[in-house]
Amino acid sequence: MGPLQVATGPHFEPEYIRLPKPRERDPIFGLSRSYLNVLILPSDENNYRPPVRSAVLRRKGARTGVRLINVQSLREFIQRQEELNQAAEPAPATQPERP
Questions:
Q1: Distance between CA atoms of 46 and 82, rounded to whole angstroms?
Q2: DSSP letters spanning 6-28
Q3: pTM for the complete prediction?
Q4: How far is it, in rounded angstroms, from Cα 64 to Cα 49?
């Protein structure tokens, strides 16, 4: 049996992505680590209700772990922001027709 094959290509989307290292950005959306932390961790900025789901994988007894961000949850958050921005935009003004 050969090595494990991982699906890659333009139609592959991971279910989770790892929180990027400091001063790096996530590979899918290009968001900074600090902005992602605002979205996934309870804080004043999000009224202690993070809009994006995440999980921490940690071995028993370990102090640290790996924070994973749910891609679908992040995609849904971005979609909601886009819809809010479109709803907030004023309708284009129409000019009267000239005879």
A1: 18
A2: ---STT---SEEEPPPTT-B-TT
A3: 0.73
A4: 23
pLDDT of residue 88: 85
Backbone φ, ψ for residue 70 (5° rounding): -75, 115
Q: Quick one: tokens of 19?
A: 């929180």
Rounded Cα–Cα distance for residues 65 and 60 (Å): 10
Residues with Cβ within 8 Å of residue 73, at least 6 apart in sequence: 51, 52, 53
| Percent composition of the chain: helix, strand, coil (DSSP 3-state, to 5) | 30, 15, 55
Answer for the pair 42, 31: CB distance below 8 angstroms, yes or no. Answer: no
Residues 6+ away with beta carbon under 8 Å from 80: 51
Give residue 12's pLDDT. 76
**Helices within the chain (DSSP H only):** 33-40, 71-88
Task: Please provide the size of the chain in residues.
Answer: 99
